[in-house]
Here is the input.
Amino acid sequence: MAGGGSVGGGTFKAVNIRITGSTEITLGEDYGGGAIYAFQQTQPAYIVGSSFEDNSGSNGGALGGCSRRSPS
Here is the structure.
């Protein structure tokens, strides 16, 4: 679903990482984040001290996400 890496569900932590030249090639509003794509996260995503360069996606170059809705 994502170019660099797709995560979903629990807590995600990226600390002091570097992602360069990653691409999400699928076009659409729910696709994006050439480097990291957080999908239906139920817990926080932490990205600290990290760098992203020359990444691309249809809806977010380095980071993209789609949140999970709580039932009404």
